[in-house]
Structures are given as structure tokens and as C-alpha cells.
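Example record

One chain of 273 residues, shown exactly as stored in the release files.
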Amino acid sequence: MTVLVTGAKGMLGQDLCPILEDAGYEVIETDRDELDITDKNAVEKLVSENKPELIIHCAAYTNVDKAEEDIETARLLNAKGAENIADTAAKNDAVMVYISTDYVFKGDKNEPYKPDDTANPLNNYGLTKFEGEEAVRKHCEKYYIARTSWLYGHHGRNFVETMLSLKDREELKVVDDQIGCPTWTVELANGILKLLEKPFGTYHVCGSGFTSWYGFAKEIFEQSGLEVNLKPCKTEEFPRPAKRPAYSVMDNDKICRDWKLALKDYLNLRVEE
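Predicted C-alpha cells for this chain:
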């Protein structure tokens, strides 16, 4: 089967593409240099020429804080871009996978969000990603929406690497009142493969279990054998332009492994490299 991947040079794409190839897919990698997802004609031309049976749409505007001041660009990429891909996939009878986010939720629940829970984003990034979801649902019948969260991987800036780079600080404060599900890009990539065996629809593809950013940092240092003067703090101590949901834990129906096991594998690979 031929699969076209947008955002192939991103943190997820760089893990996803080789995993797809190992699973026997013929992969067409595209990034911003090969495909402008906001150009409908360019999308239609590329898809009609390559005729993929599956399109995995990873490309997105992901600067959460900057989206607060530049919603137009975020909407163009996250909503209009998704619409272009979805409409073109439908016209070419291709299955579409759209990568979405836990930020579509407000974060005011006290139990894990299920895929059919009502979306109510707190920030512009979450809003534009949800608008992308709605575009996919409207234009494409054969789709999977894969919501993920707290993503980290070897091919991009992420929380794990940030924490390890700050290990020598006299004191390191990390927010302890935001709760979510850390997800390794490799786990997400393998989860996407599992989705393809399921009925079309919306799914949560994130690490199993949950923690706070402080708990995540603590686990990173413990697994790395590092002693760090780590202190919990409140969100108010580190104000950001975009509001974050206090609780964005998602029920993943065991699609991905426990986040601590995934982190262990990530750190082991990091050492080997």
C-alpha cells in the first residue's frame, strides 16, 4: 500500500516514516519544501500523480503560544490545510489519518476524556486543531482522527531534552498542576498502525497512565540516574500567552503502552546514540 505523509521532516514524521516502511508500506515523504498544504491545487496535483491509498497528515502549526497572537496563520495551516487534505483524500478514495491534540479539551474534568467527549479548547492552537478535526469529518468519510498529547521524540525539541539540559541548575522548578499523558513519537507511530485495523473515527493515541509535568521530570531524572534539586510549582509562577488545560488525561483504550515504559526505551536509545 502507498502512503503519503505530510510533515515528514517533523519530530513525528521522522519516526513514523521508517516504521511505516518496516511495516511494508511504500512511503511518499512530503514536507513544506515538497508540498504547501494551504495550496489546494498543489495538494490535488501531488495526490493525483502519486495515488496514495492512505494519507497521514502530520503537518501542522504547533507553536501554542505564538498562535495566541497569530491565529490567522495557525488557522490557515491547521484548519484550511486539513480541509485541503481531507477533500482531496475523499476525491481520490484515500483513507486519511489526522493528528490532533489533547488541547481540544478545556481540562475541567476529573476523569480521562473519551473520544466522544465535547471539545472546548482554551487556546487558539487547540481551537484551530479542532477546526481541522471538523473539516476532516465534513469532507472525508474514510478517516481516523488521532489525538495525542505531551509529545516527545529524538528528532525535535521536547520536554525530555529540555529537562536533561537543565539538570545542573541549583534549583529546577516544574509545574505540578497540569496533568496529562506523555507520549513518545514511536508509540504514536505504532499506535497509528493499530488504528488502521479499527473502524473509522476519532481515537486517543497517547501514553497510558498520567502524570504532571513535575512528575514527568522526576521520572526522567530517576530513570537517568540523576540527582536534581527538583521543586514543584504552580502554573501561575510561569505565565504563558496561551492557557493550558489543567487536566487533559485521555482514555486511549490501551492503544499505547504505559508512558514510563516508553520513556525508558527512549532514554536507552538516547544513550546508545
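Notes: The chain has a mean pLDDT of 97.
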